Amino acid sequence: MNIEANAPQVTGDDTSLLLVDDDKPFVTRLARAMEARGFVVDTAESVAEAVAKAKAHPPAYAVVDMRLGDGNGLDVIAAIREKRADARAVILTGYGNIATAVTAVKLGAIDYLSKPADADDVFAALTNSGEQRAAPPENPMSADRVRWEHIQRVFEMCDRNVSETARRLNMHRRTLQRILAKRAPR
């Protein structure tokens, strides 16, 4: 992650940014890079800490990791949007799938980035006006990835209940647990 002297700068009256991630070295580097771009940065390492900070001082911007030690980053997005409807929040995750991306957007996230994302990607997502369209992928999803996405979508529809998801997919529960424990295929 480069911290450049000529990095693009954020504009506006409120440049408060809440970074929520349990990876301390990553959040420290990202905080420095965002401060160099003009943000006033606050960090949190857990859902509880982030929700408390969001309720006390709702940030104008937020970058939230999906999976945290004590819960789901989507709870942080919901807490921020509850206190500040105009907040621009981005979900950052190493476990990306369509179902959680859709849920994040429904809860008020403006973008969904997969790790590893650099400071430029995060800055662009936070400051994008929404007029730019994402380019279509050069490589379409594999059949394994489409299957994975479908399983994840059903899993989210069942409120992350493994037994109910297995029943709906007509799949053995242990087989489903093994699939969910693996990383998403490319």
UniProtKB/TrEMBL annotation:
One of its GO terms (biological process) is phosphorelay signal transduction system. Residues 16-130 form the Response regulatory domain. InterPro entries: ActR_PrrA_rreg, Bact_response_regulator, CheY-like_superfamily, Sig_transdc_resp-reg_receiver. GO terms for molecular function: DNA binding. It comes from the Bacteria. The keyword Transcription applies. Pfam families: Response_reg. The modification 4-aspartylphosphate is found at D65. The keyword Phosphoprotein applies. SMART domains: REC (SM00448). Keywords: DNA-binding, Phosphoprotein, Transcription, Transcription regulation, Two-component regulatory system. Transmembrane segments: none annotated. PANTHER family: PROTEIN PILG (PTHR44591:SF14), STRESS RESPONSE REGULATOR PROTEIN 1 (PTHR44591). This is DNA-binding response regulator. It comes from Mesorhizobium denitrificans.
